[in-house]
Amino acid sequence: PSPLPSPTLGRLSNASQSLLVWCKEVTKSYRGVRITNFTTSWRNGLAFCAILHHFRADLIDYKSLNPQDIKENNKK
Fold first, then answer.
1. Residue 2 forms part of a structural domain
2. How distant, in Å, are the alpha carbons of 6, 7, 8, 47, 57 from that of 28?
3. Mean per-residue pLDDT for 58-71?
4. What pLDDT is attached to residue 75?
5. Is 3 left (phi over 0), alpha (psi -120 to 50) or beta?
6. Does the pTM of the predicted model rise above 0.85?
7. What is the mean pLDDT of the chain?
8. Which CATH number belongs to the domain containing residue 53 in this structure?
9. How many domains does the chain have?
10. Residue 14: which pLDDT band, with cuts at 50, 70 and 90?
11. Residues near 27 by Cβ (< 8 Å), separated by ≥ 6?
């Protein structure tokens, strides 16, 4: 029989899932953002910029971002 997962692991998994759901909710109306995980979904910088823009639109011009310009998006 396989060992039961530790309570800590279960809490971490639930916290990660909750955070992922929150990120999806915050960014759902942003073009070019499709969050499915904590790795590749963030690579082009749009997801991070969308979250910033959602809470502080004065800090970033989201409409000016180019999904192909990964380096520049991650510098903003």
1. no
2. 33, 31, 30, 10, 16
3. 95
4. 86
5. beta
6. no
7. 89
8. 1.10.418.10
9. 1
10. confident
11. 33, 35, 47, 50, 51, 54
CB 73 within 8 A of CB 65: yes
What is the full DSSP assignment across 5-45? PPHHHHHHHHHHHHHHHHHHHHHTTSTT----SSSGGGTTS
Per the domain annotation, does 1 fall within a domain? no
In whole angstroms, give the CA distance from residue 76 to residue 61: 9
Q: For residue 16, which of 46, 38, 33, 41 has the smallest C-alpha distance?
A: 38
The residue with greater pLDDT, 46 or 7, is 46
Place of tokens 């809470």: 55
Give the Cα separation of 61 and 16 in Å (integer).
28
Domain that holds residue 19: 7-75
